Amino acid sequence: MLSGCGASLVSLQLNGCVGLRGEVLAAVGRLCPGLKLLNVRGLALMDEHLRDLAASCTNLRSLCLAWCTQLTEEGLRPLVARNPELEDLDIEALYLLTDSMLTGLAECTPRLSRLSMRMCHRFNPEAIVALVEGTELRSLLVSGVLDEARTTDLVSRVRRVRPHCELKW
């Protein structure tokens, strides 16, 4: 399917296509060099699939990896490093990510303006605030990340750094 239109394709929504194997991502990157939006929500992806995609996918502005629960920084970091124009990222339920991924996002994607990190339990408030400081974040979705008291504290800290940031918790 992609071999006929891939060169001109800018948006690809594969969310919920559970029959697709992760190996298809290497072909997506190769056949769709102009891809700006990619949604693979819920696919059974592994780190090597993201590394394969990163080899040729360098124009992403929006990426949804929500519920691709086996992914770690080892797979995600090369992809975000090769896509510095990334503005919108959904990593909901990527349980294995840690604060070092937030540091990598701040370093690699300074134009990041929207981030959904719902249910990423390993993130600490300090790393989240540092990410807000290091990017252009205007929308942050953090429900299910911290307990209520730490979430309230995080919200007030983010508001001090970025008063107009839309927060959902």
The ordered string of helix (H) and strand (E) elements is HEHEHEHEHEHEHE
- Gross morphology: globular
Strand-residue proportion: 5-15%
Spatial strand sequence of the major β-sheet = 1-2-3-4-5-6-7
- Stretches where pLDDT is under 50 for at least 5 consecutive residues are none
Q: Helical residue percent?
A: 25-40%
Total number of beta strands: 7
Superfamily (CATH H level) name: Ribonuclease Inhibitor
Q: What structural category do the secondary elements indicate?
A: alpha/beta
CATH architecture assignment: Alpha-Beta Horseshoe
Number of helices: 7
Cα distance spanning the termini: 39 Å
- The CATH topology, please? Leucine-rich repeat, LRR (right-handed beta-alpha superhelix)
Instruction: Tally the structural domains.
Output: 1
CATH class: Alpha Beta
Subcellular location: Cytoplasm, Cytoskeleton, Cilium axoneme
InterPro entries: FBXL15_LRR (IPR057207), Leu-rich_rpt_Cys-con_subtyp (IPR006553), LRR_dom_sf (IPR032675)
Protein name: F-box/LRR-repeat protein 15-like leucin rich repeat domain-containing protein
Organism: Volvox reticuliferus
